[in-house]
Amino acid sequence: MLLRDVFTALATLEVTFINEQGTNVTVRAKDLDETPDSVENNDCPMRVLMPLADQGAESEPGEVLGAGKVSVGQITWSIVDAYLQREQGVGKAAEQLPNLVRYAEAYAETISKNVLPLDEGYMRLKTFDIQPGQVEYPINSGRVYWGVVCVLRYVYELECLEV
After folding, report:
1. Are 156 and 3 in contact (CB under 8 A)?
2. Residue 22 burial by Cβ neighbours in a 10 Å radius (0-12, 13-18, 19+)
3. Cα separation of 51 and 32, whole Å?
4. Is residue 63 within 8 Å of residue 159, measured between CB atoms?
5. Which terminus of the chain has fewer Cβ atoms in its 10 Å neighbourhood, N or C?
6. Among candidates 98, 92, 78, 84, which has minimal Cα distance to 7?
7. Is there a contact between 80 and 151 (Cβ–Cβ < 8 Å)?
8. SS3 of 70-130
9. Does position 11 have pLDDT exceeding 80, yes or no?
10. In this predicted model, which residue has the larger pLDDT, 101 or 94?
């Protein structure tokens, strides 16, 4: 599976949660070729996928993968899946934060249950972090949203040898 395929697979993944008002909310991501230059409140909630510039790729030496397989090296790619709920200044923190936590829980459950479709070949999900709070989008724009930043780290095995 290529890195671009991972972005496409994440974009098709729907995250559904029940908000504080008891309503089902389903959010699908914008794929890379749909990435908006800016987001208005009436576009929210929305998910935006981005490569993580300051942690884009790291290479590591080979390792034993178990069951007679050895990797000769790997690259770790970081992907940001940002959930934008509402621009700050619209609504109070006490109204926004409970739904951020509900979304974060639903996201963790969704990613945990849907790792296998993204886990084919030499590409696999290694770790993910979820941080509810404030999200600036686009970066350095000064526009801050109530949201959740999810950082997924995928490992690409450069070559996998049978031993």
Report:
1. yes
2. exposed
3. 9
4. no
5. C
6. 78
7. yes
8. EEEEEEEEEEEEEEEEEECCCCCHHHHHHHHHHHHHHHHHHHHHCCHHHCCCCEEEEEEEE
9. yes
10. 101
